[in-house]
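User: two proteins, same treatment. go.

Assistant:
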Amino acid sequence: MKQFSIIGKRVARVDGKPMVLGKTKYVNDISLPGMLYGKILRSPCAHATILNIDTSKAETLPGVRAVITAKDIPIVRFGYEPGMEDETVLAVDKVRYVGEPVAAVAAVDEDTADEALELIDVTYKELPAVFDPEEAMKPGAPVIHDDFPDNVRHRVFREFGDVERGFRESDYIREDKFKTPMIMNATLATRCCMADFTPETRELTMYSDTQMPYSGKPKLANILGIPAEKIRFVRPIVAGSFGSRAETCHDVHAISAFLSMKTGKPVKIEHVRSEEFSVIRGRHALTLKFKTGVKKDGTIMAMQCEHITNCGAYGDFAISNTLQNSSIFDLILSPANLKYDAPVVYTNTVPGLTVRALTNNPLGFGLYSHMDMIARDLGIDPVDFYLKNVHHQGDVTSGGAKLDSCGISKCIQEVAKASRWKDKRGKLPPNRGIGLGLGAHTAGFCSGGELSTCQVNVDELGEVRVLSGRGEYGNASTNMICMIVAEELGLRLENVAINDIVDTNVIPYEASNYGSRGTIGQGRAAMAAAQDVRQQLFEVVASRFNAKVKDMEAKEGQIFVKGSPDKGMSLKDAVKAYNDSGKPLPLIGRGSYEPPSEDMDFNTGVGNVSVAWGFGAQVVEVEVDPETGGIKVLNVVTANDGGTVLNPLHLEGSSEGGIVMSLGMALFEGVQYDERGRIITTSFPTYGVPTALQTPEIKHIWVETYDPYGPYGAKGVTEVVSLPTTSAIANAIYDAVGVRIKELPITADKVLNALKGRQKA
């Protein structure tokens, strides 16, 4: 096995110090001379016709520079999925959820902008509203979009094998229903964007924290009516995203751009915290109905899932998320017969977008709670039940996912061993329980157009700088890139720098940031760029010592002939020799990577949407107070297959963050509405994110497989590490006190009521 100098080591982040010292600059910190402040007027109604908008008073308020409504901008419908556009930047004739943008203003300061909003008079005629997707599909329900009279925006249907025959051949069949609420990203920084339009050249610069600065330009250009090549995105380090920045069209982006185009001045729009919680697009609420047939020995014969996605008032990411779940439904378990029926349903609620791992987390909560119940009904240990039914390396799922690396069985075995599962299960003190959860997700997402590029520059002083469009979102992806470049060039990590700002006019193209694709996409591109630099320097040094390029080596800042350290020179001297040979500086290495994965066929559901897949298992131990229903998570043992471990320190941090995030989803978090469709969880205290006080002891295990597509065999783990927690907690609660909560979050009052109900029964 190859020995590495940096790869596999516990290496601290190159950008860590300025972050902890508070010196890192985020998009919220940026201001420009003459900057105006934008504010958005939002609908107070869940469903209403707009009869009139009077902006005259706002327009005459001193300090107001622009007021816009739908009549002032092009009416262009957009949506995340091509061909499924259903939304406009500002409401046209009708509003469909509380918080939908109706008008916007730009003023010299925030107070004036807020006052201007109060002066805009909108007359509404309220319409009947519907907030539950199952109610929305019933005959006679309010119609949200005229083109979809049953409110079903799209239906994903997949069937492989003969499900009915599988049920007939089963010895036992179980059905369960689960519900999960919308989950917010709850990032520390609120959404912010500043648009700066230059009328003379019709060029637009967007200062934004978007995850899609490159691929989002054509969509934004279509809405604004200007060429994509006239749009430039500047994105600093992002203060947390978790999927909330996976758009460039609605809300702060397009509205700030239109205001800047109207005024000719930079316009900044930044959500206040209550606004962030009220309108930011989180993970969709789901209703999940499972039916599974098994043999007495635990062999799964058939699986069926009705997956109802509450997409809110507009489609946005809902269809893409639901399609993803159709691939992930059988990614761990391997039945020959399965059916997946998933309506995507309009309601008069805030549209969803995505949160870490899309809607895979709620799917996993339902699926692996359901499977835990089946194993218990059969009298089979869940560990043994899963090991009988999981996929293995080399398998191809019914939907066509290719598992070139797959360590799920090893993950299960390792967490069972490390948690002392066999010793604890059924033997813990009263009101304490232990539960097992599983998870799998894309680890190098690829659905076409997933190009990553990277550039490595070396100047006359031998300074190495990486130019990458990946950017930093808190998951140390830029550090990973620097580690790869340092490894390939034989340097220490501190000798490699990377851009902290992504500027689409300067930095090489990167498709987007989602799907845990950074390790494989940018990792391979960075490796190729570094190897390009290395090859050029090897040629120069080899010629100086009358050696062959294949005999050269780079290590500890030196380039030399293998086995002869005296026949070589420092990287700085090698660059000088390169320049002395008549070649210009900086020396530039270029690299790119596009995974060889085919698109999914949306009609048949067959296809490999990810070049690699990550897997994980967790065992959680909990204690439940029978007097109050209070739940305390005592410890977590987690095992994850992320291929080759590039940096254990990074992986542990990502894993801990994912576990705490999903612990919040399991026990505390969830958007709540009042009877009029208004979100009432508009702050951290009311929404309920976990704190350090709820963080349990966590033990990490890394199951190292080798993925053929990843750099050094690595693959992405940022999302999969968060997936098993929720089902593991639910299963542990049942093990502790014998009550099964099927609707998240699992709050103390739900547990207490279930305990009281069991006592009465």
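Protein 2:
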Amino acid sequence: MHWLEYAVFLGIVVALARPVGLYLARVFERKPTLADPLLRPIESCIYRLLGVRPDEEMTPGVYIACFIAFGALGTLLLFALLMAQNLLPANLPAGGPDAKYLTTPMTADLAANTAVSFSTTTTWQAYPGETTLRYCLQLIGLVAQNFLAGAAGLAVGIAFIRGFSRERSATIGNFWVDLVRAMLWVLLPWSLVGSLALVWQGVPFNFSPYTLAHTLEGSQQTIAQGPVAALEFIKNLGTNGGGFFNANGAHPYANPTPLANFLGMLAIVILPAALPITLGHLAGRERAGWTLLAVMVALFAAGIAVCDAAERRAPPRLADLHVSAGNMEGKEVRFGIADTVLTTVTTSNGATGSYNAMLDSFRPIGVSVPLMNMLLGECIFGGLGTGLYSMVLVALVGVFIGGLMVGRTPEYLGKTITVAEAKLVAFYTLLTPMFVLPLTGIACATPIGRDGLTTNQEAHGFTEILFAYASCMANNGQAMAGLNANTTFYNLTTIVAMLAGRFGLAALALALAGRFAKQIRRTPTIGTLPCDTVTFGVLVLGTTVLIGALCFLPALALGPIAEHLQP
């Protein structure tokens, strides 16, 4: 039955990819939609308030500058809110005391880490939400950033697509127009519907005080309350992650039922899976978009197969007990192995760290799947925009290598890959190992870095550190629970990875899009390598695996592979 669930999930994703992809194309081409009578006046009002001239487009350099400035402003505002949290209304009615519930101090380095985390859609949380943040801060600060940062990421993805859809153009769109339309036509209405569905499934939305309950053993338990539903759906749709509670998607208030979990996973994947179709439609090569989507689906299915096989084997220490349920350590019984594996693979591919199990308890090969997904830049579906340009740049590497091997012109979607474009592609490909591997090495080589390993050492401890920096570089946010990341060292070094993953990769992608937009679109000839065939799909799939192996196989050998081979 578990394979049927996986097949149904992928079937729904593929079925929705085309209608959603064409809808995105209409929205960002500013063509009529059914929502226009309601949203157009709001859009015009926002432009007037911000002083935006929607008909003025931007060069890639200006677009990048606006994207970075918007992220910096969001970071500063959220940092100020975090540092001023004590001035906000308390969690209890009438401003009652909440000090006994909010026990984790908001230090300057933790506030900086959290602000950068949410403004980059990483939502890396080195703190438990229910013991650190007040309701107002969760709503005003975190939920707002989930919308704003998610919309900015989608805007960058659309600008990247314009590099292939335009010719002889010095511009790739207007960042502020793309941002507003992503917010009004996509994230806000879809999140409203999704949040209501979660409330129907039992996710709370209240401002009640924390509930004190007495257990059967006679002890007292504090049950956190709050406006949970406001955060839970947009964190998935905006590919943010980050939970209202420390346990994230494993918490019964955040993710109460298998249906709520399934809807959350669809919310993560639908928009990124539709973007290849948007690319193919706007570039006039829709089959090329389907080819990229097919590669994503194939790699996703491979990850599901490996992770599922690993987690269905009982841990060796339980082998003599004849345990047949597989590795249920760290997993919720209401989800079981199937829903846990689906969530793990989906969240690690979708830049959304809303995991529903403790990854620290996974088998070594099982945890290597989400780790590798993030190290590959989450090119399998990915985040809003990021997954698309990660996969396209992998395809460009394949085009370049394939063209050299068979003597074909290195072109993709009618755009020629010259020396300048090849350098940008190479730099993009190497940026993740350039940050993740040195940061991991520094953390492992220094006492201050090793001090974060509270429960595990050796190969497993190495995997925890590598996983943390891979998660931050991929703007994902999920972590293995054995690493204490709320230290000055990890708060500051993970900021470096988050900023590089958000702005470094986006800047390179937009610079490449700008170069392609200036070119003419060449008509395919007998010397052009086709980009919409099964052969090309296999080439892209092989290139993805090759890049991952060349960049990260030694690190994996020191971590999950070494642990797997231990007796």
